[in-house]
Design goal:
CATH architecture of the largest domain: Orthogonal Bundle
Number of helices: 15
CATH class of the largest domain: Mainly Alpha
CATH superfamily of the largest domain: Hypothetical protein af1432
Low-confidence stretches: none
Shape: elongated
Helix content: 40-55%
CATH topology of the largest domain: Hypothetical protein af1432
Mean pLDDT: 83
Strand content: 5-15%
Length: 365
């Protein structure tokens, strides 16, 4: 039993490494305007996370016929400079054509792939993952070892997690290069991507933002506060973007370690958002949206009026929407039951003033 718990702990720590690496990648795409610089930094992040002799990001041309190396580590410069790989040829071409990951242990056999590249002759093990966006496949990420080494399904899953989120971020990085002020669009797209991953919370941010502004009106908050509140309501859960699906959508009760992992999302979300200068105050709201009126919340245990008013509003709406939405572990509660629970927690978990404004909005006389 103790050994099994130790193994589970080690596995969770590895997931945390992936989470941190992913956060680093997302931050890069928000703060660096040139795609080429971003791709090279992503290669560095991947090779620091997963053992490899070579790592490359290959992108398809506009007609989606050829792959070219856009960023790499460990590849011969002759291959990197100008070499192209036809869709269907070699490891990367096979993955691009079939649009599915490939885990390969053992040297490439004669006839295993069409026209494999010169550098692939020395590969002993490899993982290749397609980069897919809403418009289809745009490239392939490959890692490989030239010495005796076997990649595992865990290695493949970790790389898949990074590439899946990389694809989302790359779409927005292209916008970054087209529009100087695309930082906000990047963040918003990531929030939408999170909802796409989590089937149980689709529409959550839109509902939260709409109610948040209605409550702000009732509380007669300043326009600048309303603007911050709108973005905080939309982006408050963006820190969940790197949480593995098996934890995010777990049908049963979370373990203590998994819950601790989940709780980091407010910190991670603030770190992502604060890299956009215009959203630094929004980042503070995101950081504190799980604080409680009585001081027993997280991450800083703020109490009462020390919690930003915007965070107090998001806290109420987040709880209400969570209770009235289907979750992996239970069906949605009725609105009446959720309202009763909010009233019960007024003055302990929630700001009574915000609860009163919420009740006035959702139960107009």
């Amino acid at each position: 039993m103790a050994f099994a718990l130790k193994q589970d702990r080690a596995k969770l720590m590895k997931e945390l490494d992936v989470f941190n690496a992913l956060l680093k990648i997302l931050g890069l795409l928000i703060s660096i305007p040139k795609m080429q610089d971003v791709l090279h930094r992503i290669v560095d992040a991947i090779r620091n996370l997963i053992l490899c002799d070579t790592c490359s990001i290959m992108l398809l041309d506009v007609k989606r016929e050829f792959l070219t190396v856009q960023a790499s580590y460990g590849l011969d410069e002759r291959y990197v400079q100008g070499a192209i790989q036809r869709m269907g040829d070699g490891i990367a071409g096979w993955v691009a054509l079939h649009r599915k990951p490939l885990l390969l242990n053992g040297p490439i056999q004669e006839g295993q792939f069409n026209n494999y590249m010169e550098h692939e002759k020395n590969i002993v093990s490899s993982i290749a993952i397609p980069i897919e966006t809403k418009d289809g496949i745009i490239g392939v990420v490959c890692i490989s070892m030239k010495s005796e080494y076997e990649y595992t399904k865990d290695d493949e899953r970790r790389l898949l997690l990074i590439v899946r989120n990389l694809a989302i971020a790359m779409e927005n990085a292209h916008l970054f290069e087209e529009l100087e002020k695309t930082n906000l669009e990047t963040i918003m797209a990531l929030a939408q991507a999170l909802e796409t991953r989590d089937a149980y919370t689709r529409g959550h941010t839109e509902r939260t933002a709409r109610l948040a502004l209605a409550i702000a009106e009732r509380l007669e908050l300043p326009e600048k506060t309303k603007e911050r509140l709108k973005y905080a309501a939309i982006l408050h859960d963006i820190g969940k973007i790197g949480i593995p699906d098996n934890i995010l959508n777990k049908p049963g009760k979370l373990t203590d370690e998994e819950y601790t992992f989940i709780k980091q999302h407010s910190i991670r979300g603030a770190e992502i958002v604060k890299q956009v200068d215009a959203l630094k105050l929004v980042a503070t709201i995101i950081l504190h949206h799980h604080e409680r009126w009585d001081g027993s919340g997280y991450p800083d245990g703020l109490k009462g009026e020390k919690i930003p008013i915007e965070a107090r509003i998001v806290s109420v709406l987040d709880a209400f929407d969570a209770m009235t939405s289907d979750r992996p572990y239970r069906r949605a509660l009725t609105v009446e039951v959720a309202i009763a629970e909010l009233k019960r927690c007024s003055g302990t978990q929630f700001d009574p003033k915000v609860i009163d404004a919420f009740m006035a909005e959702i139960q107009p006389k």
